[in-house]
Design brief:
By secondary structure, this protein is mostly beta strands. Helix content is 4%, strand content 41%.
């Protein structure tokens, strides 16, 4: 019997000994089905960093397998002062419960969008964050989402404009200036760069309503560069900080929010990010899939400049977020829900075998 190492070729009479080498591993599985029910114990309860007591009050109250969380709301079920009267809302703004699930008897993470806020104050803020334990040069985030069938956007009510909500985000948290995992403004925001945030947006024009998924991205920069000429958080103006596209799903026309998400079904989101191969390479990646249809793909993202650290990756990801959506007056106390299930994070695109560089075969 002779043994050869040859390129991969499929032919009769050859018995392959090598197995495919897969491109990724499962880093995190939220596994809501096996988690205890969870909800904020009172209005705007949060756990922003290890040992946080300023807003946590009754303790960490950690949700499932996540490490940190943040909520901001107007109408918690225990009641808050609103217009001089207590208004006890039906549900906490974020929760892990069995109200909705892709699996019979299972659970999901549910967020309620409250109709309140303004240009600089988004409502419906419920975010769960996972510390990945180390930095990864590429990540694939996968989630299934289902929307309240009666979901409505302010732009649709008004007949024009744009409304948006955050759903997924990943950062490189350095902790240089803050331990707070929810600092997105000022010098402290640079302690969480690079960053990629995935939003779902509704856009209404004179020609109709459209789904416009987008990724808001920022480059790596040290907090010391804040508000200096060397601040690279916004790519120094040399690269767009927003990647946006309509949704067609193999159809000729751009689809509306109603057509894509309001069918009372679960829809799969796949979000892929990859660090540039080296500082200054300008070959980083941001890609998005909805129901396994590619929506946008950018492969020239300059996450880092020449001179930045050679080894760098993302080390935390978040699920949920706030919304810029006020379809009805605040005094109406209007809210609506969306649910997320089967949230997983991989170290690359899953189930995509890499062809082996060599294969050992036996010939009788």
């Amino acid at each position: 019997m002779k043994k050869f190492v040859v390129p991969l070729v499929v032919s009769c009479g050859l018995a392959f000994i090598a197995s495919p080498v897969f491109a990724s591993e499962l880093i995190f599985d939220a596994d809501f089905d096996s988690q205890a029910d969870w909800a904020p114990e009172y209005d705007s309860q949060s756990y922003r960093y290890d040992g946080d007591t300023a807003k946590s009050g009754a303790g960490e109250n950690l949700p499932g397998k996540f490490d940190y969380y943040y909520t901001n709301e107007q109408w918690h079920p225990k009641g808050v002062e609103y217009g001089g009267n207590e208004y006890p809302r039906k549900e906490p703004i974020g929760q892990i419960s069995g109200k909705f699930s892709r699996n019979e008897g299972g659970k999901s993470f549910i967020v309620y969008d409250e109709s309140w806020g303004g240009p600089s104050q988004w409502g419906a803020d419920a975010v769960l964050t996972k510390d990945l334990g180390r930095e990864y040069p590429e990540l694939w985030l996968e989630a299934w989402v289902k929307f309240d069938p009666s979901w409505v956007w302010a732009d649709q009510i008004e007949g024009s404009g744009q409304s948006a909500m955050k759903l997924l985000r990943c950062r490189r948290h350095s902790g240089i200036t803050t331990d707070n995992r929810f600092s997105f403004f000022g010098a402290d925001s640079r302690s969480g760069s690079p960053v990629a945030i995935f939003d779902l947006k509704s856009w209404t024009t004179s020609t109709g309503n459209y789904v416009r998924p987008l990724a808001a991205i920022r480059g790596y920069t040290h907090p010391d560069t804040y508000k200096t000429d060397d601040d690279y958080y916004g790519f120094a103006g040399d690269y767009p900080t927003k990647i946006e596209s309509s949704v067609k799903l193999n159809q000729a026309k751009s689809l509306s929010w109603q057509e894509v998400f309001l069918d009372d079904k679960w829809h799969k989101i796949g979000f892929y990010i990859k660090m540039d191969s080296h500082p200054g390479a300008k070959d980083g990646i941001v890609q998005l899939w909805i129901d396994d249809h590619e929506i946008f793909s950018k492969k020239d993202v300059p996450w880092r400049r020449s001179g930045d650290p050679d080894t760098m990756g993302w080390n935390e990801c978040s699920l949920g977020g706030n919304a810029n959506n006020i379809p009805y007056p605040e005094e109406a106390h209007y809210d609506q829900w969306y649910a997320v299930d089967d949230f997983k994070i991989y170290s690359g695109r899953p189930n995509k075998p890499r062809p082996p560089t060599d294969v050992t075969i036996s010939i009788d």
